[in-house]
């Protein structure tokens, strides 16, 4: 009796294994990848394409033996204890020093609560709270007079420069 139960369970398992892929194939809406639609996005503003140049590390030439290599690092650990922690512990906290110069980036596109910005080193997708290239945080993303603007924590306002659309 035990052998028949085991044989029946094996046949039932084999039948279920053969039927399941067909069930998935016939019901793809239940098992497929759900993609978000593009209905809620707006078109990118018409701008000329920018030149993209990227140098791969694999394209770099190997060092020759003629090149002088830098001397190896000193393996002896030497360290001093700074007094900066004492001043911070006493309550005289240091002010954060900002980076020199103004950040040079521009707003390209806004969609679904995220903004696409571009600076000299590339393009980034940011959202509220993200750190921007000028070392400030993105405070808000707003639409003013048909143009999208982002306002940073330092009070700077960057707009997308696109023509207002109806």
Blueprint of the fold:
Blueprint: H1 2-26, H2 28-31, H3 84-89, E1 105-111, E2 114-119, E3 122-126, E4 138-144, E5 147-152, E6 157-159
Antiparallel strand pairs: 1-2, 2-3, 4-5, 5-6
How much of the sequence lies in strands comes to 15-25%
How far is the N terminus from the C terminus?
78 Å
Using the alpha-carbon principal axes, give the shape. flat
Topology order in helix (H) and strand (E) letters: HHHEEEEEE
* Low-confidence residue ranges: 93-99, 162-166
Q: Main sheet: which strands, in order across?
A: 1-2-3
Radius of gyration from CA coordinates? 30 Å
* Number of separate helices: 3
**Percentage of residues in helical conformation:** 10-25%
- Largest sheet at a glance? 3 strands, antiparallel
| Average of pLDDT | 75
């Amino acid at each position: 009796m035990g052998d028949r139960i085991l044989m029946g369970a094996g046949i039932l398992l084999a039948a279920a294994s053969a039927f399941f892929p067909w069930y998935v194939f016939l019901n793809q809406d239940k098992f497929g990848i759900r993609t978000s639609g593009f209905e809620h996005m707006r078109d990118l503003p018409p701008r000329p394409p920018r030149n993209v140049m990227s140098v791969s590390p694999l394209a770099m030439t190997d060092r020759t033996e003629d090149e002088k290599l830098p001397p190896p690092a000193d393996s002896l650990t030497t360290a001093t204890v700074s007094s900066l922690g004492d001043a911070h512990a006493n309550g005289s906290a240091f002010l954060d020093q900002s980076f020199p110069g103004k950040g040079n980036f521009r707003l390209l596109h806004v969609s679904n609560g995220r903004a696409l910005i571009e600076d000299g080193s590339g393009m980034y997708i940011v959202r509220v709270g993200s750190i921007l290239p000028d070392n400030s945080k993105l405070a808000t993303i707003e639409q003013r007079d048909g143009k999208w603007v982002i306002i940073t924590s330092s009070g700077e306002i960057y707009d997308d420069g696109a023509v207002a659309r109806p």
